[in-house]
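RECORD TYPE: inverse folding
INPUT: structure tokens
STRUCTURE:
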């Protein structure tokens, strides 16, 4: 069975950038992932944008919480995750389309690999 990757996307006022970040997750050549979008109480339209993505693909999951900062928000997302691996991705960042498959290959070949 292929391991699931959980992508944690904390967001605060990043609705304008969020589609590019989420598209970079959707473009992955490795299909076994979930993407947890956590709105950290944004006053912009982050919720509207995020919900469009949850309707587009069920692997996107959306949560809202009161503003408490990026670390707390990321940790909240990690608690919702079901994946064997956690990938942090800020709402204004992007990843290449082979990122997940290349990371899984490294961990499969060298199980003692650690990121610090």
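DESIGNED SEQUENCE:
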């Amino acid at each position: 069975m292929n391991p699931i990757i959980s992508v944690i996307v904390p967001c605060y006022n990043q609705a304008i950038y969020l589609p590019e970040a989420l598209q970079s997750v959707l473009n992955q050549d490795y299909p076994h992932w979930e993407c947890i979008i956590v709105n950290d109480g944004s006053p912009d339209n982050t919720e509207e944008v995020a919900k469009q993505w949850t309707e587009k693909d069920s692997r996107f999951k959306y949560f809202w919480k009161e503003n408490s900062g990026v670390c707390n928000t990321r940790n909240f997302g990690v608690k919702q995750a079901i994946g064997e691996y956690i990938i942090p991705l800020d709402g204004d960042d992007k990843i290449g389309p082979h990122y997940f498959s290349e990371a899984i290959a490294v961990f499969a070949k060298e199980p003692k690999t650690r990121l610090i």
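NOTES: Residues 16 and 99 are 23 Å apart (CA to CA).
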